[in-house]
Amino acid sequence: MAIADILNAIVSLKKDEVVENVIAEIEAGTQVDDILNKGLIGAMDVVGEKFSSGEFFVPEMLMAAKAMQAGLEVLKPHLSGDAAAEKGTIIIGTVKGDLHDIGKNLVTMMVEGAGFNVIDLGVDVDTDKFVSEAQTRNADVVCLSALLTTTMPSMAKTVEAIKEAGLKVKTIVGGAPVTDAYAQQIGADGFSDNAPGAVELIRKLVAA
Ligand code: B1M
What we know:
Layout: H1 3-11, H2 15-27, H3 32-52, H4 58-75, E1 89-94, H5 102-113, E2 117-120, H6 127-136, E3 141-145, H7 152-164, E4 170-174, H8 180-185, E5 190-191, H9 195-207
Parallel strand pairs: 1-2, 1-3, 3-4, 4-5
CO-5-methoxybenzimidazolylcobamide binds next to helix 3, helix 4, helix 5, strand 3 and strand 4.
């Protein structure tokens, strides 16, 4: 039994084995961060490489994603939480044209675990929806996730629309192709390349 078994089970598209191995590692007392980063997230990098090299196609990527999400569900109650932290309302979604939601779901789980009220708008969310939800829910922070270089402009459009609507809500962006420089370029209030970092950023922005 090892963390590599979790990674291998995802890459072999064996959902039940992923769940079994995550449970075994939790019971063995393995660090939750290691299970998450070296096992679950590490596997998706391997899957991405196999897609790029033509070994995997979309159906395999999808099966791997489902296997990874099953492991994530098992891990969810063990992800670090601090319910005593200052609270606020957070809107999150994957931007228009983009269907990737694993990273966004991970950020959601951790932000919820930190005691915030999180409204998850799902995937393929258009700009108007982000703006109207931020307004009606009186949100403190809007979180935008994108995994495709082709959908990053949707982030820029949404950040701009939020500013144009005169909302005081802060915006943060993240997702594999997104960078700090891009966040600054589009006028977002922050960027994180990982879920715990997003929690820290939200805490700072809400407290400011
Ligand atoms: Co897609 N896909 N995919 N895919 N997919 C990538 C992203 C890709 C890099 C694969 C590759 O070519 N190597 C590539 C993008 C290339 C590019 O744009 N540069 C790609 C492509 C091309 C596509 C399609 C176009 C393929 C096709 O149809 N020909 C298609 C697009 C569909 C669409 O969205 N319109 C497509 C489809 C899919 C599936 C549906 C099959 C599936 C997604 C299933 C799902 O999400 N439910 C899928 C998958 C699984 C992947 C890979 C393999 C894994 C993504 C993932 O879940 N990673 C991916 C390759 C890769 O990333 N290595 C790939 C794990 C996840 C935990 O990481 O989302 O980065 P990530 O989140 C991290 C951080 O980025 C950060 O925190 C998380 C935890 O640390 N983070 C935030 C994320 N959001 C944040 C927000 C924040 C802060 C931090 O604040 C707001």
